[in-house]
Specification:
159 residues; alpha+beta; Jelly Rolls; 8-stranded antiparallel beta sheet; 4 helices; 31% strand; globular
Length: 159
């Protein structure tokens, strides 16, 4: 994985904004980008490992990620979903500081925007209104995922 400062991307067409953050005006998106770093990852890379503690979250600009959850016995791993451009991953840890609830692996080349907890705190103090909008959108994502998890059957299980 490599990290670089965000590249110049037109905020009106940035795929990372056009998903979860589509309601955020382009000028606010550009300001939010100032607090993020770009991560480029390759197929097979583990972005997040279940059980680790790290309060950073990611917004997917391009690529596809797999969401894997280990069974309590540690023997089986279940694929519970995929994350694509415009969505977020790791938002729970940013919000609650608890260990990661899933392992996230890279399916195809991906570019992600990472927001560390420290960078979010800087956003909170420097642009509280934008931080509030950002938190509201994350709360919406968490709510929608919770609703979806309650109504969908399990996906495939792998050993």
């Amino acid at each position: 994985m490599s990290a670089t400062p965000p590249r110049l991307v037109d905020p009106t067409t940035d795929p990372a904004r056009l998903g979860v953050f589509a309601a955020l005006p382009p000028e606010q998106w550009a300001r939010l980008l100032e607090h993020m770093e770009v991560k480029r990852v390759r197929p097979g890379d583990v972005l997040i490992k279940q059980g680790t503690v790290d309060r950073g979250m990611y917004i997917v600009r391009q690529g596809t990620l797999a969401v894997l959850v280990a069974a309590r016995d540690g023997e089986r791993v279940r694929r519970v979903g995929t994350i694509e451009a415009g969505s977020v991953v790791g938002e729970q840890a940013l919000l609650d500081g608890k260990p990661r609830s899933a392992t996230i692996t890279v399916i195809d080349d991906a570019e992600l925007l990472r927001l560390s907890f420290e960078a979010f705190r800087g956003l909170q103090f420097g642009a509280p209104e934008l931080a509030g909008i950002f938190l509201f959108e994350l709360a919406r994502v968490v709510s929608l995922r919770f609703r979806s998890a309650q109504s969908e059957p399990d996906d495939e299980t792998t050993s």
